[in-house]
Amino acid sequence: MDSERIEKIIEEYGLQKFRANQMKDAIFNKSVSSYDEISTLKKDLREKLKVEQPLLCLEEHKIFKSSDKRTYKALLKLEDGRIIESVLMSPKPDHWTACISSQVGCAMACTFCATGTMGLLRNLSSEEISDQVLFWRQFIQKNGIDARLNNVVYMGMGEPFHNKTKVFNSIEELKNPETFNMGSRHISVSTSGLLKPIYEMAERFPQVNLAISLHAANDDLRTGMMPVNKTFPLEKLAEALTFYLDKTNRKIFLEYILLDNENDTLKHADELVDFASKVKPSKLLHVNLIVYNQTDSSHRQASRETATRFKDYLLDKGVSATIRKNLGRDIDGACGQLAVLDQK
Ligand code: SF4
């Protein structure tokens, strides 16, 4: 459900305009899971809408809960039977973040990523994207979780900028004060480095956070891991990031998965320092080091000690860096683990 669909319902069912506000209040503020809970609508209308206009255009297929209860992964079934994954996680007490998908599968074929092995099956619509947030809001409400959904990150299945129009529309919807009413600073988009949309995002959504899946800072290595680098090499990426920083003055997050004996030596750390120095002002960059989550690929996880040494080296050279906490490993809900291979 989104504002466009509510407008359509108002028109199609000949309802008075104020009904739109009642519906928005119930669906987005109160996070109702059924029309039965929208008591401001007449019973016969509620019954009709229940059958003809489901509150969500996706349905729960399966839910997994991590043993520490800080991560939930949902398999969500779309109207055409395709299944996507969406994750709700609590990086700190009382804070919940939804990690949402923008495509079924992904065309980018990054070698370390489970989603990349699926290929691209299709793009999601704007409503299918924002409905994942609505799904998690309902989930929090239904399960009596005593906290709000604070943040949304476009880091699930798919390359968001490969489905740019729908993703940008969904960001507008998340920001819409009449529906999701989320602040731009609570929304983050992660890209493998498609350049044109980075320039567009800087102009259109200067307050939305940008994260770059970097993972290597020399072109040969990065192209081997991420074919997108062949078309958009590091030099061009650095230019786009400098443009973004100039326009927005907002921090950019560089995601870097540490892979044993591939990109985790001090030589690689030095290349990262060099890349950071080409982005101006580099003090607005922050490196998130991620300890690889094992998928079926041949990559191996770097050790904790290696990660710490890598981080310390960056800090020593003046590059801001942290090792990111991994949530949801036991339910394959962590970074790079999202894939539904059995698409009926
Ligand atoms: S890391 Fe992101 S861009 Fe690369 S294959 Fe996975 S989902 Fe696609």
Task: Please outline what is shown here.
The protein is α/β, with parallel strands linked by helices.
Describe this protein with a few key phrases:
344 residues; alpha/beta; DNA polymerase, domain 1; TIM Barrel; ten-stranded mixed sheet; two-stranded antiparallel sheet; 11 helices; 36% helix; 21% strand; binds iron/sulfur cluster
Broad structural category: alpha/beta
How does CATH name the architecture of the largest domain?
A: Alpha-Beta Barrel
Low-confidence stretches: none
Strand residues, percent: 15-25%
Q: Span from first to last CA? A: 24 Å
CATH topology title of the largest domain: TIM Barrel
Number of domains in the coordinates?
2
Oligomer: single chain
Explain what this protein looks like in three dimensions.
With 344 residues, this protein is an alpha/beta fold. It has 2 domains: 1-55, Orthogonal Bundle (DNA polymerase, domain 1), CATH 1.10.150; 61-331, Alpha-Beta Barrel (TIM Barrel). The chain is 36% helix and 21% strand. It contains 11 helices and 12 strands. It has a 10-stranded mixed beta sheet with strand order 1-2-3-4-7-8-9-10-11-12, with helices on one face. Strands 5-6 form a two-stranded antiparallel ribbon. Helix 1 packs antiparallel against helix 2 (18-29), helix 4 packs across helix 5 (164-175) and helix 6 (195-204) packs parallel to helix 9. The longest helix is centred in the middle third of the chain and has 17 residues, at 126-142. It binds iron/sulfur cluster. Iron/sulfur cluster is lined by residues 106, 108-110, 113, 115-116, 157-159, 192, 213.
